[in-house]
Design brief:
By secondary structure, this protein is an alpha/beta fold. The chain has two domains: about 160 residues, DNAb Helicase, Chain A (Orthogonal Bundle), CATH 1.10.860.10; about 270 residues, P-loop containing nucleotide triphosphate hydrolases (Rossmann fold, 3-Layer(aba) Sandwich), CATH 3.40.50.300. The protein is about 50% helix and about 10% strand. The chain has a nine-stranded mixed β-sheet with strand order 3-2-4-5-1-6-7-8-9. α17 links the parallel β4 and β5. α2 crosses α8, α5 packs antiparallel against α7 and α9 packs parallel to α16. The protein is elongated. Its EC number is 5.6.2.3. Keywords: ATP-binding, DNA replication, DNA-binding, Helicase, Hydrolase, Isomerase, Nucleotide-binding, Primosome.
Length: about 475
């Protein structure tokens, strides 16, 4: 196909392109090789030039630039000869013609932006055409087509002109800010509200995949909700909580009782004293105003999760993603369960890197941890796939001795075992757990412990002198 006919290659209509601007850009570089540095930072892919001959010339210019060879028509012709492409581009005559076609390189910045917009439009056309082809394929599934379409469209949006070459002072200033934050007790990542954990990790860092694991009933959902509430309500971080196990009403109830410090059982029964009612009403406003998003779709798959997360991130509404829990996620066509779970964990790690956010995925531990003589869970106890351990940047285990001992002295004790920390040290972190609120606190935080006994629950300062049916009035 000739270059003249190539311009009408989509449905008989001309593809977005400006061949004359391409000629002027290449001629400007030959006229003033100093602008090659600007062009290299702006041109990120092979589709930038529409005509093949211009792409070949650009590749030769890049080779000269890389080898620190002076750029002029003679050296460019020699490089194209070495590449055996000189005749394809039109010979030495075309090279000199390019340089003679422009008087200066003054318009190079405009030409770069103009040609970039044309290249983006061509990518959108080709991507749309591929989406149509996949959708017409009888073997395709809607989930796969949507996933590929969304990935490709977001890739086009993200791969705009990126100037990654920066002066060193662009990096020194943020570094000094981080150092200053650490000196003042601040953190650089998403805070969890658990002081010792935040000190260990300096906050949950972008691109990290964190696995939070425990046996059923130990409190992994409660700990995840504690982190979500602290990040969203106390620190104003945008948090998305995907729950495959509990519905949104149940999560809201836990959150409300946690923030109000009211016994869940009394809320369920509707027999609250006036003090508890006041606490619940006071807790509603900060919860409603918090940037916390909940999805309780129990049939969630990795593709749908990635799609929703991308949409939130694109709108600027995502700093932390939590999934409860990994083994409940809908898998693809993999027959082997371990392979399927491995694909999900890899997908979550890719998502964390792509969106540059921390991702917490809850996971079940195998029954081995319940064997007698086992003092603590191990990384090998993660159920169904070694890929989970491999993909994770951190692995946390939640332990509550009361689950095994049922002793009163163990009732409020809890430990977070940081069993893997790719960018730091491992550690056991003591915490407090108040089962009435299903909430975790710092081990030294007495506020959370207040009200764990019956005297508080049935408050003697109530005007009615005891329990009463909850009446929220206009609330």
């Amino acid at each position: 196909m000739s270059e003249e006919n190539k311009s009408k290659s989509f449905d008989g209509r001309q593809m977005p392109a400006d061949v004359e601007a391409e000629r002027c850009l290449l001629g400007g570089i030959l006229r003033d090789p100093e602008v090659m540095g600007v062009a290299v930072m702006a041109i990120s892919d092979d589709d930038f030039f529409y005509l093949e001959r211009h792409q070949l010339i650009w590749n030769a210019l890049c080779s000269l630039n890389k080898s620190v060879t002076p750029i002029d028509p003679v050296t460019l012709s020699a490089e194209l000869t070495k590449m055996d492409k000189l005749d394809i581009v039109g010979g030495r005559e075309y090279i000199f013609e390019l340089m003679e076609s422009v008087a200066s390189s003054a318009n190079v910045p405009w030409q770069l932006e103009h040609l970039r917009s044309k290249a983006v439009l061509r990518k959108l056309i080709r991507t749309s055409s591929e989406i149509i082809r996949q959708a017409m394929d009888p073997a395709s599934t809607p989930d796969n087509v949507l996933q590929d379409a969304e990935r490709d469209i977001f890739a086009i949006a993200d791969n705009q002109v990126r100037n990654t070459l920066k002066s060193i002072d662009n990096f020194v200033a943020p570094l000094l800010e981080r150092i200053n934050n650490r000196r003042e007790g601040g953190i650089t990542g998403v805070p969890t509200g658990i002081t010792e954990l935040d000190e260990l990790t300096n906050g949950l860092q972008n691109s990290d995949l964190i696995i939070l694991a425990a046996r059923p009933g130990v409190g992994k959902t409660s700990f995840a909700m504690t982190v979500a509430a602290n990040a969203a309500i106390r620190y104003g971080k945008n948090v998305a909580f995907f729950s495959l196990e509990m519905d949104g009403i149940q999560l809201a109830q836990r959150l409300l009782c946690s923030q109000a410090q009211v016994d869940q059982s009394r809320l369920r029964n509707g027999k609250l004293n006036s003090d508890e009612i006041k606490k619940i009403i006071a807790a509603v406003t900060p919860i409603n105003q918090a940037p916390l998003f909940v999805d309780d779709n129990a049939d969630l798959g990795i593709m749908e999760l990635m799609s929703k997360a991308r949409q939130l991130k694109h709108k600027g509404h995502l700093d932390l993603l939590i999934i409860d829990y990994l083994q409940l996620m809908k898998t693809g066509k993999e027959e082997n369960r371990a392979v399927a779970i491995g694909a999900i964990s890899r997908g979550l790690k890719i998502l964390a890197k792509e969106l540059s956010i921390p991702v917490i995925a809850l996971a079940q531990l195998s029954r081995k941890v319940e064997e007698k003589g086992r003092e603590r869970p191990q990384l090998s106890d993660l159920r169904e796939s070694g890929s989970i351990e491999q993909d994770a940047d951190m692995v946390w285990f939640v332990e509550r001795p009361f689950v095994q001992t049922h002793k009163d002295e163990d009732r409020y004790k809890a430990t977070l075992i940081v069993a893997k920390h790719r960018n730091g040290s491992v550690k056991d972190i003591d915490m407090s757990f108040v089962p009435e609120y299903t909430t975790f606190y710092d081990a030294t935080d007495q506020q959370g412990m207040e009200g764990g006994d019956e005297d508080y629950q049935y408050g003697s300062d109530d005007e009615g002198g005891g329990p009463q049916v909850a009446d929220f009035g206009s609330f």
